[in-house]
Amino acid sequence: MNKISIKLGLLFFAFILILEIILFSFLYTGLVDSRIDEELAELKARGESHRHVLEKSFDKTTIEHVALMETEADTDVVIMTHKGKVLAKSNELTSPMKRLMKHERGSVPFEGMIVEKRWATESYISTVSPIVIDDRLIGHVYMFKSTNSIQTMVYKLKQHFILVGSLTIILTVITVFFLSKVITLPLIRMKQATKALSKGDFTVVVSHRSKDELGELAESIQTLANDLNHLKKERNEFLASISHELRTPLTYVKGYADIAKRKGVSDEERNNYLQIIYEEAEHLSGLVKDLFDLAKVDQHSFVIQKEKVSLCEFTNKIAEKVRPAFMKKGIELFHSCPDGLFAMIDRPRLEQVMINLLDNSLKYSNRNSKVRLQVEHDQTKNKIELSVIDEGIGIPKEEIPFIFNRLYRVEKSRSRESGGSGLGLSIVKEIVEAHGGQINIVSELGKGTKVTIELEGCK
């Protein structure tokens, strides 16, 4: 059994046992007191009955008849004068009886009284009733009952309570055992799951159908496990992708450097090799810069310094900067922006975003196609939308949800012709969200892609 089951079971058992002892004690005491009160009331009522008979006919025959009636009963009667002379008795008097009969005969109330009720320590319980004829005290009727029968009755009652109490404790132990197992089983499973998580096993499954706090905790642990498993896969894919991205340019640099330093290589060939080495070094530099940006994002040190910027001026400069590259590939770049639009942005960071999006459109668009860089204003929501729309190859619908993942590329072969490391769009998303904005992609395979950045406008 697990420690938590033992602790919880002992706690429940101790609480229930204390509660049962208190309840059984009250019940036992109440029943005993009630039964003794009944015995005393019955004894007193019997004495009162005899008193009434004697008050009607206080003669020798009646007195002897009353005494005779008690000879076969489990009670004893003693009839005596008010001066203490015994007129009749049902059995021989014992010392305890004689002692009790000396008890305040002159102060007995008319309705009678209990002389002795200490059943646990005395030999008899006793009552006395006065015999009053014509408003004159004639004598007393003493009633006695041996406490042996009462003690026997109390003993049997105690035995019953012990038996019932023992059965109750046994049932309590069994109930507490099963309840503690039922309650702690989900906790034990969660403990095992978290232990597996701490050892790096993120494939654990925590099943709990209840809708209470335990169910919510199990669901949270399962969510954590799923997230960690996803992060583990992403990390492995990320490391594999980074290794691939770094290995390829390094291979080119090493290979062409070996060729360039050989004897007999012409200056023209050597310059060509050096140009390839330079391009690969640039590629490595860009990749390292992207990785550095992502590292700053993860460490929350990615600082955005906003300023009020005219979006038309901002986007126009970007369009003019990239236009030569579009013209070289035979792609028309259109720019449209209504006057008077301003936004609080980090100019260098958002410029990095727009150039990245335009560069993607350039890479994945064919000659004689069109690319539009447009700015629109939604006055009802006071939102500004910066869009890059191309007529390129498009993105498969099933790939769009993953397009912003790090090192994710729709083109799986990572060919040098298609370029890119797969880090650009993830950085773009981080920069846009750091501005408090959103980025959305709508694309259709073979027809083109529209990337829209939504930002808060300002006056």
UniProtKB/TrEMBL annotation:
Topological type in the membrane: Multi-pass membrane protein
Keywords assigned by UniProt, alphabetized: ATP-binding, Cell membrane, Coiled coil, Kinase, Membrane, Nucleotide-binding, Phosphoprotein, Transferase, Transmembrane, Transmembrane helix, Two-component regulatory system
Coiled coil regions, renumbered to chain: 214-241
Subcellular location: Cell membrane
Gene3D superfamilies assigned: 1.10.287.130, 6.10.340.10, Histidine kinase-like ATPase, C-terminal domain
Single GO MF descriptor: ATP binding
Domain of life: Bacteria
Name listed for the protein in its UniProt record: histidine kinase
Organism of origin: Bacillus timonensis
